[in-house]
Specification:
Keywords: Signal
Protein name: T9SS type A sorting domain-containing protein
Largest sheet: 9 strands, antiparallel
Number of helices: 4
Structural class: mainly beta
Strand content: over 45%
Number of strands: 58
Oligomer: single chain
Radius of gyration: 34 Å
Pfam family, one: Por_Secre_tail
Organism: Kordia aestuariivivens
InterPro entries: DUF7619 (IPR055353), Secre_tail (IPR026444), Sperma_CUB_dom_sf (IPR035914)
Length: 761
């Protein structure tokens, strides 16, 4: 009897222990999209310990009931409850979201005042799917609906917009996968007024209101440029703006207040066949309670005595061979044209549409679009030359060069230009940092670094995109930029101070570098330096070269350019309607390598042999006395010297600047001299040896006597990379982390200064 009772007790205790234990459950297997995170939960009643593992390997430190998972794997939770171990696992798989493109906007143009129309949304599908035919596209009216697959647009082939403009959201998903992507595009109806060149100008009178953003869009019926002339009218000075936008809907021809608010007499001309007049007013004083209404006329360029050939190069997104609204003009090339086979090749450049005027209907033109060498692998031109083009007097035609992009070339360019004045002791001056995306795709993010010369003081950044992050450094600042759109340019205006202690004649060098260059196509435009001489007075109409008056001969290669800035300012008593710059290139410059890089205003430049002529027609440049900032302008171009330049060669540059019909203002003559390497004050009492050169890991600097030495290493832009101060016969510099390239070693002791070029492999 006792034995039987013992067995019963053991069985009872066993069932009791099992009844108090809990089995862990971390859930089912999970599939999730990249960029998201999932929390696995192994919470178990009465648990005393947890331990997580991934793919059989214990995850150190993960001993809580939950685990945040961001990558694929088999995750197992081991739990101890009442001394009993239990485990469960879950397979987590991260899948990639489909690669899609943001489509271009859908635009309907009309001459009526309609605000709604029927759009076919499905025409955007080829742009979105990026060649992936497995994707299913559905359209929604809000981002939340697209995310959650709620209320898809039932008939996307005939959708009537609800607002103007309206944003449409497209959800792209492979039906066999759970991951998706959402992109968006705008539907917009644009109303324009037709301008018939054979009829009288169209007169518009408008009295703007508070918070007004009304636009007036005009388009010529013949393709000719459109001229806007203000007969009378006023805007509130410093508050309400008159804005004139060119044919591309991007370039701003004018933004301002006229002469103390009076816009009477302002004249603007489009580069293409369209121009927009816009009002931007605040919430207080307006035309309705204070000012003379705006009255302006829209007319076509008088083509009664000339024929107009508009040359246009553009990215042919849909490969149909014709220019469509919204397609981007590609400025990375020159327009070459020859008249009547006369053997004279004219080279034209513009940032928009290049215009050739013909004074005889019998003239014929052979026209070529010549891509800049650095972009020949990024774009394809099916027909780069079109021969025997002619246009009748009084007519205007377009000659189009459609480009396709066989590969996505990423190219960020940085430029540093002084558009105000050179450094002067006791005064501030500005540097303009231009960040350009020379690509057909958006660059999601990147970093640029600005380094100021140690003689100058970085005061502040006057203007910058509010979405960018600025971090001050000991030598200047860095900028983290985001979402730089195709062919976009961002301007960063920097204010610098030249202290009163700086001597006249000192040379300062500021540098900007694009540091995130992993996928960049043209490495040569990732750095820009600006070298300037400290002066006591300044003529605002001048020419300078960014490297300064002296260039070390052995550091300047056949791939390098000279970068020239020609600045101009209207110092007269009235606005300058037209500005023209003329320069004859020095015989040591290779005119065939001339390229425009940037300008302050819309321009056309033509090169005939060694003669350059820039035209700023209808620039309406204010006089300094009315608008000091707006009275300035510049052109910035690059060019190579001819082969064979030698130490001691001097290349002069001088230009003539014409304001309307006045006598030319002749700039200074800026001389660029090629000089020997910078070995200064070398003293024979100390011998210096550097090895190995080229160096890979350690660079040794040895001396024949002990002397306190300050050794510094600079890159080719003058930025200090390394520095060591030692009292020893041998100094070791660790260069293993440096990028391959040319550097300069500068040594200073009590008795000598020494400079030597170093190559790092």
């Amino acid at each position: 009897m006792k034995t039987r009772l013992l067995y019963i007790l053991i069985i009872f205790l066993s069932f009791t222990a099992i009844g108090f234990s809990q089995t862990v459950n971390v859930g089912d297997d999970i599939e999730i999209c990249d960029g998201q995170a999932i929390v696995l939960d192994a919470t178990t009643q009465n648990a005393t310990a947890y331990q997580w593992s991934q793919d059989g390997q214990t995850i150190a430190g993960e001993t809580s009931a939950t685990l945040v998972v961001t990558q694929s794997g088999l995750y197992e939770a081991t739990v101890i409850v009442n001394g009993i171990t239990s485990s469960d696992d879950s397979l987590v798989t991260f899948s990639s979201s489909p690669a899609v493109n943001n489509p271009s906007d859908s635009i309907i143009e009309t001459t009526t005042n309609a605000t709604s129309d029927v759009f076919d949304l499905t025409v955007k599908i080829p742009e979105i799917i990026n060649g992936n035919t497995n994707l299913q596209i559905t359209f929604y009216e809000s981002f939340v609906e697209a995310q959650n697959e709620l209320n898809p647009i039932v008939n996307p082939t005939s959708y009537t917009n609800l607002t103007n403009p309206q944003t449409i959201f497209a959800r792209a998903q492979d039906p066999s996968l759970s991951c998706f992507a959402v992109v968006n595009f705008d539907l917009e109806i644009i109303t324009y007024t037709s301008v018939d060149c054979s009829q009288a100008p169209i007169t518009t009178t408008y009295c703007y209101t508070n918070n007004d953003d009304t636009e007036f869009r005009f388009r010529s019926t013949s393709g000719s440029p459109v001229t806007i002339e203000f007969i009378e009218g006023m805007v509130e000075e410093n508050w309400d703006e008159l804005i004139i936008i060119d044919s591309d809907d991007i370039t701003v021809l004018y933004t301002g207040y006229g002469n103390n608010g009076d816009v009477t007499g302002l004249i603007f001309e489009s580069t293409g066949d369209e121009i927009t007049v816009k009002i931007d007013s605040d919430g207080s004083i307006s035309c309705q309670n204070s000012f003379v209404p705006l009255q302006f006329q829209a007319s076509c360029l008088d083509t009664s005595v000339v024929g107009i050939i508009n040359v246009r190069s553009f990215l042919d997104d849909n490969t149909n061979g014709t220019y469509d609204v919204g397609e981007v003009l590609v400025p990375f090339g020159n327009v070459l044209y020859e008249e009547n086979d006369d053997g004279i090749i004219n080279v034209g450049t513009t940032n928009q549409i290049y215009t050739i005027l013909s004074d005889d209907g019998a003239n014929t033109y052979d026209i070529t679009f010549d891509l800049f060498p650095e972009y020949v692998n990024c774009y394809t031109i099916a027909t780069p030359t079109i021969n025997d083009v002619n246009v009748a007097i009084g007519n205007a035609i377009f000659v189009d060069f459609p480009l396709t992009a066989p590969q996505a070339c990423e190219d960020i360019e940085v430029l540093l230009i002084n558009t105000s004045r050179p450094p002067r002791p006791g005064f501030t001056h500005d540097n303009l940092l231009m960040l350009k995306n020379n690509s057909t795709t958006t660059v999601a993010s990147g970093t640029i670094e600005f380094v100021v010369d140690n003689l100058l003081v970085f005061n502040n950044i006057i203007s910058i995109n509010s979405n960018y992050t600025v971090t001050n450094t000991a030598t200047g600042f860095t900028v983290d930029f985001v979402n730089l759109a195709p062919f976009a340019t961002e301007l960063i205006e920097i204010e610098l101070l030249c202290p009163v202690t700086v001597a006249l004649g000192e040379i300062t060098t500021n540098t900007v570098t694009y540091t995130t260059d992993t996928n960049d196509l043209v490495l040569g435009n990732n750095t820009s330096s600006l070298e300037e001489t400290v002066i006591g007075s300044w003529d605002p109409n001048d020419i300078t070269e960014s490297r300064g008056p002296e260039i070390i001969h052995e550091d300047f290669t056949s791939q390098d350019y000279l970068y020239y800035t020609i600045r101009f300012q209207n110092l007269g008593t009235a606005e300058a309607v037209n500005v023209r710059i003329e320069e004859t290139l020095d015989t040591e410059l290779d005119e065939t390598t001339f390229q425009m890089v940037a300008s302050s205003h819309d321009f056309q430049v033509v090169r005939t042999n060694d003669e350059l002529v820039w035209r700023f027609d209808d620039i309406n440049l204010p006089a300094e006395m009315f608008d000091a900032d707006g009275s300035n302008g510049f052109v910035y171009f690059k060019i190579k010297p001819k082969a064979g330049y030698a130490i001691g060669d001097i290349i002069p540059g001088v230009a003539g600047i014409y304001f309307d019909f006045n006598a030319p203002v002749i700039t200074n003559t800026f001389e660029t001299k090629f000089v020997a390497p910078l070995s200064v004050g070398e003293v024979s009492s100390i011998n210096v040896t550097t090895y190995p050169n080229p160096a890979t890991d350690i660079l040794y600097v040895t001396f024949d006597k002990n002397e306190t030495s300050n050794v510094r290493l600079f890159d080719v832009q003058g930025k200090q990379i390394l520095q060591q101060v030692e009292d020893s016969k041998t100094i070791e510099l660790n260069v293993s982390s440096l990028q391959s390239g040319i550097y300069f070693l500068k040594l200073t002791t009590a008795t000598a200064q020494f400079t030597k070029k170093i190559i790092v492999n």
